[in-house]
Each structure stands twice: as C-alpha cells, then as structure tokens.
Design brief:
Blueprint (H helix, E strand, L loop, with lengths): L20 H16 L8 H13 L5 E2 L6 E5 L5 H6 L1 E7 L27 H20 L7 E6 L8 H7 L6 E14 L3 E3 L2 E2 L3 E10 L3 E2 L9 H18 L8 E9 L5 E2 L2 E10 L2 H21 L3 E10 L3 E2 L1 H15 L4 E3 L10 H4 L4 E9 L19 H20 L2
Parallel strand pairs: 3-4, 3-5, 5-16, 6-15
Antiparallel strand pairs: 1-2, 2-4, 6-16, 7-14, 8-12, 8-13, 9-11, 10-12
C-alpha cells in the first residue's frame, strides 16, 4: 500500500493531519483482527478491550459505556469555552457483527467464529473512527485542534431498536453539538463518498400479529372463525389499506416474512401468526405508522371475527441528514481529495440506528465507498462474502479529520 501525499488529490486544501504510513498499516491490521473475531450486539467485550487499550496507549481516557461494551472518548477540553460555546463534534462507529457465516474462501482474515461475520463493514467504521481519533489526538497535543471531539464506539447497531438508544442514555451526547458517521457502500468505489441532504436511509420497524378463534371443521366455516382466510386477508389487505391511508410519497410499506397456521387439511385452526417489517422513507409517516397499522389489522381481522394481538416493535426512524452538516462532510472530502471524490447518493430502504442520535442533535452520515477498482460485480451488505477495499479506511480517516478541522475553523 503506497503512501499518498496531501498533494496527490487535485483541488485539495492544505490541512494538517495526514495519516502516517505506520498508522495506516496499524489500522488495516486492527480491522483484520476485528474481522477475524466478530462479536454480536452487546457481546463486544474483546473489541471494546482492544479499543480501550489502544486509546489509552495514545494518552486518552476512554470510558466503557454503562452497557458493559462500547466506548466514549473525548479529545480536547469538552468543558472548556470552545466546547461549551459550540458543542463537541462527535464521530460515531458501530462495533457489532452479524449472526451469519463468513463464506469468503480465499481470505486470510476471514472470521474464526462460526456463524458470525462483519458482513456490514462495522470493522471498517471502527478502524476509521479509531484512526481519526489518534490523528486528532496528535493534533491536539500540537495545539492544532480548534474544537474538542468525541469518539463514540457504539454496540448493538444490528439489534432492534439499536444500541444507539442505550448509548444516548449513557450520556454520549452530553455537550455534543454535531455528530457524523460513515457507512460502507459496496456500490461506491473506494476513494469516494456518497452524500445526500435529507433522508438517506429508511425507517424500519418489526411487526408481529397473532390471530385467534375457536377453530372448527372445514366443512362448516360459517359456524366458526375461518382463521386461515382471516390471516390471508390480513396479509394481503393490510399493506394495501395502510398504503391508501397515507401520502404515497412517504414510501410506507408493510411486507411479510413469515405466516403460519394450522396442521391438518380439514381442520380450521385456532391460531395464526404473521411477522414482517414496516419500512418508511418519511419521518412524519414513520411516527404515524403504528396507529395506522393497528387500525388496519383490527379492521380486516374484525370482518372475520378473529381476535388480534399486535406486537409493533419500534426499530429506527430514517437517518435524516442535516444540510449544514452534510455540507461540512462535502467540504471536508473536497478539501482532502477534490470535488470528484464526492457523488450524490439515493435514499436507501435499509435502516440504521444512527438516526436516534439525530433525534437529539444535528448530524449527517456519508456512504463510504468500499468497492475495489475495476470490480463491476453487483455486491451488497449482509452477505457472507462481503469484504471491503481497505483503502477506504484511509479515506474515512481523512474525511473525519478534515471535518473536525473545518468545523472548528468555520465557527470562530
């Protein structure tokens, strides 16, 4: 991996904080070790210990979150005049893995844990925030960091409703004025980022429905609750009814992943279950979704005299990028790598619990390109063969360090 100088990127501003070659190699090694030892949400003890040791070795004072995993670490005087006047800039990474097998066959750093894999790039996110923190800590020692910065290493992003809520309860946003994050995108080339004003992800909730009736013989459905028909009508009519009761531009969609009922062909069952997700592109529509879904389920099930029990589990709202913070990320990337390193991106139907932070403070998430040069195979996240071009780690560090420097310079 060759070292790139600050002059290698056309149009870039001269900013301090270039990533030293030794640290660049260390971050790649850290990411690979984390990739080999994936840990599920709220079980990230090894990852937490490794981060804590490295930050302490850099002279910092990380604090393990009240949850027992995850860390928060301040750089600079958060309680000083600069921090109190403008608030801290927070850099957030998620540290958990997914409960799926690593299917890469020719990778020296593939997962060593059965049915566990960093198939969403959280190991890359973690290496980026760690690297940015180490560079910014060095700038702070030189008196070159204009504003305090907070590192947040958050557990359990993949567990609904997301570990961000628990991290917030642990106080990670106290004194924070803005927050930024990246998410790996295998559809964007390494060396580039994708940005968007406004919503960049979707809301995602979990829906579980139980239907009950007295049961009976299939010869006499008129004497009982025809529960299989009731379940079928709920499955088909509820999504359509909900869609007709809200602005179509909100993208509110109920989609089923499981439906179960009955054991014999001539017996009307007493119980049926449906489970699925509710996804939504619009924040206001997401807030209205539970009442809409409850009313629609009760209305359809009531036609067939089925009793309902609805478990609507709030997941995450959409990530809605603040325009000013999005522009900060655009300026930071342009300063480091030029205008061509930034591309517009579309709103995803995937969910991300970074959205919970944005319910409290303005912030933005960038899509971090991880596609290897020349690779035109369509790839996606949450697949066992997912991997990233590790050059993206350097790009993420550059993005975050430049954002910290420009954010401070822009608010004298």
């Amino acid at each position: 991996m060759s070292r790139e100088s600050e002059a290698d990127h056309p149009g870039e501003a001269v900013l301090p904080g270039a990533l030293p070659e030794a640290l660049r190699a260390e971050l790649v090694a850290f990411r690979r070790d984390m990739h080999m030892h994936p840990e599920l949400g709220n079980q990230e003890f090894r990852t937490t210990a490794a981060l804590k040791e490295r930050l302490e070795r850099a002279g910092l004072e990380p604090r393990v979150l009240d949850l027992g995993t995850g860390l928060v670490c301040d750089i600079g005087d958060v309680g000083g005049s600069e921090g109190e006047r403008f608030g801290v800039l927070a850099l957030r990474a998620d540290i958990d893995a997914l409960p799926i097998p690593d299917t890469k066959t020719d990778c020296a750093y593939r997962s060593t844990v059965p049915d566990r894999a960093h198939a969403c790039g959280h190991d890359v996110h973690t290496a980026v925030v760690l690297g940015a923190g180490l560079v910014l800590a060095d700038l702070h020692r030189q008196g070159l960091l204009p504003r305090p910065v907070r590192l947040i290493f958050q557990p359990a992003e993949e567990v609904l409703p997301g570990g961000a809520s628990d991290a917030i309860k642990s106080g990670v946003l106290e004194g924070v004025g803005r927050i930024i994050a990246v998410h790996c995108d295998p559809k964007v080339d390494a060396g580039r980022i994708g940005l968007r004003h406004g919503p960049i992800t979707s809301a995602c909730d979990r829906l579980e429905i139980s239907l009950d009736g007295p049961g009976g013989h299939t010869a006499r459905p008129h004497l009982t609750t025809d529960l299989v028909t009731a379940a079928a009508r709920v499955a088909t009519d509820v999504p359509a009814l909900v869609a007709r009761r809200i602005d179509g531009r909100s993208g509110l969609a109920v989609t089923w992943g499981r439906i179960e009922s009955g054991h014999a062909c001539n017996v009307i069952p007493q119980h049926a279950e449906l489970a699925g997700t509710v996804r939504c592109l619009d924040l206001d529509a997401w807030r209205a979704a539970p009442d809409l879904v409850h009313a629609a389920v009760d209305e359809i099930a009531g036609i067939y005299r089925a009793k309902t029990e609805i478990n609507y589990v709030r997941g995450v709202p959409p990530v809605v990028n603040n325009p000013d913070v999005t522009d900060l990320l655009r300026d930071a990337m342009t300063a480091r790598r030029g205008q061509d390193a930034v591309e517009d991106t579309s709103q995803s139907l995937g969910g991300e619990d970074f959205s919970w932070y944005l319910e409290h403070v303005p912030g933005a998430m960038a899509r971090l390109g991880v596609r290897r040069s020349g690779d035109r195979v369509s790839r996606d996240l949450h697949q066992g063969d997912f991997d990233a071009d590790e050059a993206a780690i350097t790009v993420g560090v550059e993005l975050f360090t430049a954002a910290a420097l420009l954010d401070g310079a822009a608010r004298p």
